[in-house]
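Troubleshooting: if your tokenizer reports a length mismatch, compare your output against this known-good record of 360 residues.
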Amino acid sequence: MDEPLLARADARTLIDHVAGEALLHVLDADGRPLGEQASRSAYIAAGVEERPCPFQDNRARSGHPINMAALRQVSREWDNIQEHIGSLTAATSQRERLTGFEITRVNAAMQFAPFVWLLQESGPIPGPIASAFKLSVGFIRTLPLITIAMEGISETPMLDVLSPPEFFELLDAHEWLTGQTQVCAGSRRSIQRIYEAMATRGTPSDPPSPIAELAVRVAPACRDLDMLLSALICAARGCIDGGAWESLPGYGERRRDIPFADWPIVAWLFAVGSARSIELVLSTPMLRVEHLQRAFPHDAQPAWLERILEENLTHDLDGLERIDALLLELALPLVGEILEKVGGKAPDRLSREDFEPLCL
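Known-good structure output:
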């Protein structure tokens, strides 16, 4: 990349990087995609190095291999990753032990640090930031699910509820270490050590890392944008379960013949979207909008979530169109906050075109 992303950043670009798949295709300093096998062509071009799963836990049952190239990178950068996470935890919390809510923000900062790098710098993503991102991907779905399922953990030091061994056993029991084509390459000990590093306040780097500090500042709004999409997709599922599918143009036709561009954006997202928030919703059939309140402390409930819960959405096409209007309205201040914090300009409005990269 010849220039920082900020030089050409707009709402559409930001949404694609924060909630979509754009970051997965960005290359790190080793020439590997941040998303590894999720960016299939770049993954093959970088060199596929897989081996059979060596672990004697639930990962072995899947028959999926581990990614040796990613494991080698993480192992090489291990000390730098620990320092990077220490900077993020120190900037996130003043507590010695972080709450579940604070840990999700640390993971968000790990997840969005490459985005911050692209906004501020040029060139491939440095090894420590890239490796920490790859570690964070494994927690993108699990940490929200844990904070939602274990009521009160968002306000409680997480290590007081889940020790590192218990955390690993939870991941293993729910097969959250098993992906569609690969399993997590980290050993039991390394997974526990990363969790403990994220759950314990570290030491700020000296000199301070501007990328880490800015990542912590933008992470709350980035995570909220992701969670907002999850909430609205949950709401859309309620409309769809109520029969709204039948009112959509082309419903019942072959997939390739359906005019998705004529659908409300939330229905399009639900049907074919690639946003991470889709995976959270689809992997949790019983998830409802009100359940997302548990992911936030009682005294830090976001205004956008309260607004959605106040809506009396009808389970029909009108309900889907109302959700679309809420998406454009409620995402606008979050997108503006992110852009302003990184030195960009907040947009005056959003349009459905800004969200179309999540559906393509």
